[in-house]
Amino acid sequence: MTFEPLEVFYSYADPDEPLQKELDKHLRLLQRNGLITTWHKRRILAGTDWVQNLDERLRTASVIQLLISDDFEATNYCDGPEITLAMQRHRAGQARVIPILLRPVDNWQGMSFGKLAALPSNDQPVSQWSDRDAAFVDVARGIRDALEEVQRLRPISPSVFPDILLRGGSHMNIYGSSTPPGNTKWVQYNDEGIYVDIDTSVANFKATPLYFTSLEGKTRHWKARGNNSIYQATRSGFRIYLYYSGITPNLANEWHWHINWLGIEF
Questions:
Q1: Cα–Cα distances in Å, from 152 out to 47, 148, 260?
Q2: Residues 88, 39: contact at Cβ < 8 Å?
Q3: Buried-exposed string 161-197: b where 16+ CB fall within 10 A, e elsewhere
């Protein structure tokens, strides 16, 4: 199964362009491997509408990187339409906004994106690291982890299932996702069972689809029973019960048990 590369959008102030270019070099391997494409304002062609270009790219980006500095704070970026749209898409689950601390900024947590986890992972701005390459490696690693999660949660394109589409028609709605590994909302059912309610409302199914599921984890999930047994299916979700002797919600998450699901609506 192949996926389209994720589009990464850079939002930064002009004085920070050298640091933006350094970060982009550290993401070059992801680009060469076809995992991402990147876009920033320098890609806008002469004679085209600046605002329209930014708006279109913001609306299609999967990951939006905010390169934070005092210059970024001093511009209109922090409270302008660019950040407003980015945060709207982030809250709607349509994109992932990642603040990246380039240079020290007083109380950046007070901005509209201030509650989001930032990079580098220790919240120390890149410019304050004694080894700047190490700082960018840390940032690139955090971005790669975020990309993996975004890729896992993104809708599955109908083009992935050409044989099914030939039989079912182009009107089909196909959507797939997973519960978060290590943080699935398992509930104790009895001494030997747990269950989880899967929310599929993000797929906007109009009727109850056909659901397909699998159980994934780091260990022992092959012994569990019930992961393909779907209960209480509706257009917005369903329930899965698992049987495994001695299992608890905490233990299931320690083993990173999570449910992969696919819904097909004809």
A1: 38, 6, 9
A2: no
A3: beeebeeeeeeebbbbbbbebeebebeeeeeebbbbe
* For helices 132-153 and 17-26, angle between their N-to-C axes, nearest 10 degrees: 60
Q: Which one, of 255, 259, 241, lies nearest residue 192 by Cα?
A: 241
pLDDT category at 31 given cuts 50, 70, 90 is: confident
Specify which residues 121 forms β-bridges with.
none
Q: Which two tokens stand for residue 156?
A: 């599955």
pLDDT grade for 148, boundaries at 50, 70 and 90: confident
* Percent of the chain residues topping a pLDDT of 90: 45
Model confidence over 3-14: pLDDT tens digits? 578 899 999 999
- Mean residue pLDDT of the chain comes to 86
DSSP label at residue 156: P
The number of beta carbons lying within 10 Å of the beta carbon of residue 240 is: 23
Q: What is the DSSP letter of 59?
A: H
Q: Helices marked H in the chain — which ranges?
A: 17-26, 28-32, 50-60, 70-74, 81-91, 132-153, 162-168, 249-254
Domain architecture of the chain: domains with CATH = 6-153 (3.40.50.10140), 158-265 (2.60.40.2080)
Taking the C-alpha atoms of residue 166 and residue 178, their distance in angstroms, rounded to an integer, is 26
Judged against a pLDDT cut of 60, whether residue 159 lies above it is answered with no
Rounded to 5°, the CA angle 257-5-86 comes to 85
| pLDDT attached to residue 55 | 84
